[in-house]
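Help! Submission page says 'invalid entity' but I think these are all valid:
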Amino acid sequence: MYTEILKKTQLFSGVDNDEISAMLNCLQAETVDYKNGDYVFREGDFINQITVLVKGKLLVQRDDFWGNRSIVNVINSGEMFGEAYVAPGSGAMLNDVIAIEDSTIIAFDINRILTVCPSACKFHTDIIKNLLFTIAEKNRKLVQKIGHMSKRSTRAKLLSYLSDEAKKQNCSHFYIPFNRQQLADFLCVDRSAMSNELCKMRDEGLIKFNRNEFTL
Amino acid sequence: MYTEILKKTQLFSGVDNDEISAMLNCLQAETVDYKNGDYVFREGDFINQITVLVKGKLLVQRDDFWGNRSIVNVINSGEMFGEAYVAPGSGAMLNDVIAIEDSTIIAFDINRILTVCPSACKFHTDIIKNLLFTIAEKNRKLVQKIGHMSKRSTRAKLLSYLSDEAKKQNCSHFYIPFNRQQLADFLCVDRSAMSNELCKMRDEGLIKFNRNEFTL
DNA sequence: TTTATTTCGTTGTAAAAACAACAGACATAT
DNA sequence: ATATGTCTGTTGTTTTTACAACGAAATAAA
């Protein structure tokens, strides 16, 4: 049914079409539909599933102790979620997950995934690898982001980020995948203040840039 | 040799002493000693191992494009590291890891861990589970931390954190595991400014606290 | 082409944070 | 008991940021 979409996800990368259908069975995957506005998870839920969104769009949001709501994340078709809560000691989910379009998910019991079945589907260990790699990759990006965000001033945040990009692309001349507003959101600073700081750095001869093209 | 220490790590939790020795063999674990000041990893290294520190202390540090050094993390005995780089597409390591005491590590090839051996050690799948859970757990904590740090003002960061703790402990009266300096470091703000903000919030009747004891 | 729309830089002002410096409370060691 | 060190709160000053508002340039749409 959704094998074409699953095939393109990181979790099933490298797995044949035929195998996917077979595995959905083996893993006792559960397909669930949600109407726009439905809750997929509620804060306080205990989950032991990882989930792939195969249709629609979800919002991860969070209300604090005083009821102030904030948007944590948007999940698009093909993306996996819930993977951070697979560990037994994770405790209850701290966010609400809400469908903001008519959506469909496929949920996998984490224990089924981690326990290689007796019939031992050919690609089962690949799935485990994919899962681990996906989480590890996300982890690495989070650590880098924290590295930038932890800097006190906007300038230091920018230098941290730009330095990283230059090193990653191994060249002092490089392109960033953000426009100004996106970069500001990523670094959690005000756009105009950031733009201002960028221009100051340019005037001081520290960097050069044009749109998303930078030279250190 | 180091089975007692390994036994206490998250990676080997639930595995018997005897089994650990057997597995070190099966996994072809490699034990390496470092003198104080030695490099364990260098920026630019490509690694495909996860590593447990069994003796000593390591520093994760990073130089930016202009040579400014910053300390990313401290690794203590029993802790695992390198796990974020296990995915094939992770690219080169972006940090230096340096021994700041005489240290000993045990390194495991990630492919050996993820490929269940023919002789199928009894606890091999447990290790995989432990590995996944450890990374997932770290992931969850990073996401939460970013949630707090992403708030613009010190007050908002504090409220985000305190609200989380209250929800986690399911009680508006709770203790935090930090002193003021540690909390400030965690939220990446200035200690005195934070202390000041806490007191303002107290004076406004928003919160009560005494040392690390808080009431919302 | 002309008209929207988005993106980016710029400015001034008000608010907030960093920083430095110090004093009181508390605990620990001598 | 005294001294030492750590932790916390407090204050004033300086620096930085957020915010709002606007115009120019670039892009997309009509």
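Support: the input was valid. A stray whitespace character was the problem, and the output above is from the cleaned input. Residues 124-149 of chain B form the longest helix (26 residues).
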